[in-house]
Please model this.
Amino acid sequence: MAQIPTSAIAAAGLVGGYATARWTGRRPLGGVVLAAAGTLAGREWHRRTSPTTTALLGTAYVAAFAGSHPLAKKIGAWPAVFTAAAAMAAASYAAADRRN
Model:
């Protein structure tokens, strides 16, 4: 069975979490999507990399989510989410996916 790249999972979690919250009007539901994707990505990071790398990528995922909020005030919501998702995807690819 083919593995889904963790970079895609992490980026989809950030974009999907925001899209869910925006289109349903329920921020907690967006948080569920964000957390589910983060958990799935974290499990794969743990399986593919070291505990230190897993912790760093998990921290980067949370930082991307948190960082998108102030960035949205400067460049707009969707551009900020896509920027955060792209940065997270790049970090995840470099640390976990490129090796596989």
